[in-house]
């Protein structure tokens, strides 16, 4: 049986700078996320939400404490081991989409599976099916520059979900979108959770998106406070 806790954070700290110019961003974050939960990280701009998300996903290092993902300590892993763990179990949606401009929509979505060494024919069929599901069946050969912001976000979501990750991190997934498109993206995220049990951890300034999550945690003075 897989562990009930998919993510465990123990007294995580993060500082930047040195000596008298050191700035504390995270001062002691403790967090446990169970499989299948949806969680919103909220707080003022500059409070460290994106920094925290990057550390939880193994994309950045803390200055102290420990993060366990799927029971494995990210703190004690080298980057190769982290990258392998992310490729197998984690998806990430960035606010800026982070699509490769020289690859078309299908190739962008297919890339993570190819990097994992999966069969190219199978990975292409899976990527195509995901884009069809997201209403982009007629945009498979379009480059990112030929897609609208909402379409690019859906490509990024399809790429993140390619391989059915156990845990999906999303940094302001609706922040650059109009309300109607943002609502569609939110619906897609929560359908992934409901249909496949994917755990969602979202950074958002959108109260409506946060309200749809099982838990809402506000980052204040480098620590998390759970809200009702």
Automatic annotation (TrEMBL):
PROSITE patterns to which the protein is assigned, alphabetical: ABC_TRANSPORTER_1 (PS00211), ABC_TRANSPORTER_2 (PS50893)
A Pfam family reported for this protein in Swiss-Prot or TrEMBL: ABC_tran
All copies of domain ABC transporter, residue ranges: 7-228
Cited InterPro entries: AAA+_ATPase, ABC_transporter-like_ATP-bd, ABC_transporter-like_CS, MacB-like_ATP-bd, P-loop_NTPase
Keywords, in A-Z order: ATP-binding, Nucleotide-binding, Transport
SMART domains: AAA
Single Gene Ontology MF annotation: ATP binding
CDD domains: ABC_MJ0796_LolCDE_FtsE (cd03255)
Family: Belongs to the ABC transporter superfamily.
Entry protein name: Uncharacterized ABC transporter ATP-binding protein YbbA
Species: Trabulsiella odontotermitis
């Amino acid at each position: 049986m897989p562990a009930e806790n998919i993510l465990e954070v123990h007294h995580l700290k993060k500082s930047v700078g040195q000596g008298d110019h050191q700035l504390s961003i995270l001062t002691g974050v403790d967090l446990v996320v169970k499989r299948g939960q949806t969680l919103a990280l909220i707080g003022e701009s500059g409070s460290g939400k994106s920094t925290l998300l990057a550390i939880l996903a193994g994309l950045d290092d803390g200055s102290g404490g420990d993060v366990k993902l799927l029971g494995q300590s990210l703190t004690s892993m080298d980057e190769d081991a982290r990258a392998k763990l992310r490729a197998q179990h984690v998806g990430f949606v960035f606010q800026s989409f982070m699509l490769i401009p020289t690859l078309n929509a299908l190739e962008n979505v297919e890339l993570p599976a190819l990097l994992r060494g999966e069969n190219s024919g199978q990975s292409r069929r899976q990527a195509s099916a995901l884009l069809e599901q997201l209403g982009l069946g007629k945009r498979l050969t379009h480059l990112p520059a030929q897609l609208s912001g909402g379409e690019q976000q859906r490509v990024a979501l399809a790429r993140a979900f390619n391989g059915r990750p156990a845990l999906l991190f999303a940094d302001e997934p609706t922040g650059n979108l109009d309300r109607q498109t943002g609502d569609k993206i939110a619906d897609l995220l929560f359908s992934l959770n409901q249909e496949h049990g994917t755990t969602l951890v979202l950074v958002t300034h959108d109260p409506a998106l946060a309200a749809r999550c099982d838990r809402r945690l506000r980052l204040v003075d480098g620590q998390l406070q759970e809200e009702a």
